[in-house]
Amino acid sequence: MLGNFSYSNPTKLYFGQNALQYLGEELSRYGKNVMLVYGGGSIKKNGIYDKVAAVLKRSGKVIIEDAGVMPNPTVDKLYEGCKRAREGQVDLILAVGGGSVCDYAKAVSVSAYCDEDPWDKYYLRMEDVSNRIIPVGCVLTMVGTGSEMNGGAVITNHKTKQKIGHVFGDNVFPKFSILNPIFTYTLPKYQMTAGFFDIMSHILEQYFSGSDDNTSDYIAEGLLKSLIHSSRIAVKDPENYEARSNIMWIATWALNTLIAKGKTTDWMVHMIGQSVGAYTDATHGMTLSAVSMAYYRHIMPYGLHKFVRYAVNVWDVSPDGKTDENIAREGLGRMEAYMKELGLEMHLSGLGVTEDMLDGIAKGSIIMDGGYKVPSQDEIVQILRESM
Amino acid sequence: MLGNFSYSNPTKLYFGQNALQYLGEELSRYGKNVMLVYGGGSIKKNGIYDKVAAVLKRSGKVIIEDAGVMPNPTVDKLYEGCKRAREGQVDLILAVGGGSVCDYAKAVSVSAYCDEDPWDKYYLRMEDVSNRIIPVGCVLTMVGTGSEMNGGAVITNHKTKQKIGHVFGDNVFPKFSILNPIFTYTLPKYQMTAGFFDIMSHILEQYFSGSDDNTSDYIAEGLLKSLIHSSRIAVKDPENYEARSNIMWIATWALNTLIAKGKTTDWMVHMIGQSVGAYTDATHGMTLSAVSMAYYRHIMPYGLHKFVRYAVNVWDVSPDGKTDENIAREGLGRMEAYMKELGLEMHLSGLGVTEDMLDGIAKGSIIMDGGYKVPSQDEIVQILRESM
Asked: Quick check: B8 and A13 CB within 8 A?
């Protein structure tokens, strides 16, 4: 049954090989000071920086540089970005990069004019925004997080070993995002594949919850089937435009609030994965893949009906003459085979996790209560151990 | 392959049994003169009028009444509404009704300050809006058209026997829409079922086009499966909230631009159905159901791959040991059986169409060129004859 909800997604998207040509028109809506946020400099090597900077200059903008956003943006970097945004009297933050860069841009947008420590207000206390928000635009160069059309902004605190995501409201969503699939071609295969699983995990964590009949789950199944099909092509042929463009579009819709409407959601794989990330700085998508099989096999008995549906509708398992449990197990087996085919990290040990970290990672995993089985901290340790 | 496109859908939706409680907050964003647009008065019988009027009064609004919007809103009614909106210096048009009422409200919103005949500018010449637009909000009481979250506005001209839909840009989309499934319960079964097929036809007309692999088609399949499942429940049990709420949500996403992104579309069933509507004033969804089977059987050989996919993915036809043509035919056969099960009109003769109208209806059908086989006027006559 569809519960009560509101839906509003004001982000304007420009999609395709010519998407950047719309940047100038969007820039004209904002003042002259633009903070250009990006990561380690790969956009300078692949030419995207020059293309974006050329549009900014043609539009008469003053560029305030904010480079060096790391894959897991830190709270120290956030403080630095806030200072820079205030000093530069920034009118627009333009994020050029993947989800980390977009997340960071949104975190700065709500934090620059926050009158207390934004880590305390937005991450520890998870409060709503009550101060001025600097608008954000995105030019996406890596797919996975959906950050280009949502309010998510994950920040890592290395001192406290916490990686926390605040999902802000639609006033914090990017005003526009430019999605050119070709801009994602130069990403190394490891990061590309990790991004594919991040997308899959977003869909699964919203799908594996609830016992009602809900249209959101049917949309989720469609997205999963398209993702499985296109990702198999893309890992073999990363410059296959058809596959990469479909994946880019799936990533956006996997986490822009649509498929969570009217239903409960789980999110424990992300909670555990984020805690792994805080301990290891491992690539986000790989922290999810490493814990997923153990997690889903653990909760399967508690949501058996949905795992049966998943096996049949997504993995084409024939249910004839099989018990529900066998159907569900066969579906998870096909998922595992697919993950190995993609080359995903299937073990935490491969990400630098050691036995002595497991208790700490479990303690750092925020426990969400929407799934078929709300795990205890002990159960999380068990899942982590099975994932080693 | 996903083509180039932009996506922007600024409509805010409030969904669920308590959705109307958000109307007051939305009204506070607009000036005091609100034109309350509705149809034949059923909202006065079922109490929705009183509920909405009470919120308007509590919000200190002046209500300018504009009742009597007919199922196929006419150009004469449009002129009258424009005059009323100008004279009342209307700040917001609040549509309370189904797709016809919402469509009409949008037509008035762009036409009231049009400096020439809006029929000529927006319907015959299909021009963009260059004048002031009055904002529109919707309280939906019938599902089907998707008008609550798109720019569509179909108007009928009885003098010229033309029923034409202009799909306006996102500046004309409703600013907000209130979607309470319970508000749709009192609709007579004939109109309810016609609405279900209108939804199905929207999805199918976007699905049956193109030969690429496109995520939009996977989403369409998910929506179709959810619709088939819930509509079978709703025709037997119209007050089944789970089914009715799912259908209401599917209707919105079936025609709010999402599933057409990056692909070509067909739309000939709507073009033929609208011409039938201009001749008979028949219920919109039934004009679509009456011509659909003949239309799809006619184009099937030209888009065989997609009809095979449709049969397998949507109608669970087993492809084992069958020719593509047989798989596709079996899929269409299951669709026809489903339509009969719902009680849809399967013949034009049942809608008051007579043989002597067929040439005129075919001439009045605008020929769109996105489908697997662009029909000639003669082919449309043939399809109409097969639909009698």
From this structure: yes
Distance of CA B313 to the CA centre of its chain: 24
Contacts of A253 in chain B (CB under 8 A): 215, 219
Residue B339 and residue B346 in contact, taking contact as beta carbons nearer than 8 Å: yes
Quote the minimal CA–CA distance from A364 to chain B in Å. 35
- Residue listed under structure tokens 């004859």: B385
Going from N- to C-terminal start, the domains of chain B cover 12-184, 190-386
Count, residues in chain B? 388
Q: Model confidence over A84-142: pLDDT tens digits? A: 999 999 999 999 999 999 999 999 999 999 999 999 999 999 999 999 999 999 999 99
- Of A309, A308, A353, nearest to A326 by C-alpha is A308
DSSP per residue over A244-285, as a string?
A: HHHHHHHHHHHTSSGGGTTS----HHHHHHHHHHHHH---HH
Strands in chain A per DSSP E:
5-15, 33-37, 62-66, 92-97, 136-140, 152-157, 162-167, 176-179
Q: A190-386, superfamily in CATH?
A: Dehydroquinate synthase-like - alpha domain (1.20.1090.10)
The CATH architecture annotation of domain A12-184 reads 3-Layer(aba) Sandwich (3.40)
Q: Is the ipTM of this complex over 0.90?
A: yes
> How is residue B74 annotated by DSSP?
B
A218, A224, A232, best to mutate vs chain B, most B CBs in 10 Å: A218
pLDDT of B1 strictly over 70:
no
A16 contacts B4? CB cut-off 8 A: yes
State the CB neighbour count (10 A cutoff) for residue B340.
11
Q: Which of A21, A175, A183, A249 to mutate to test the interface with B (most CBs of B within 10 A)?
A: A249
In A61-157, beta strands by DSSP E: 62-66, 92-97, 136-140, 152-157
B12-184 matches B190-386 in fold: no
> What is the C-alpha to C-alpha distance for residues B231 and B243, in angstroms, rounded to an integer?
7
CB < 8 Å to A220, chain B: 222
Please judge whether B8 and A12 are an interchain contact, meaning their C-beta atoms are less than 8 angstroms apart: yes
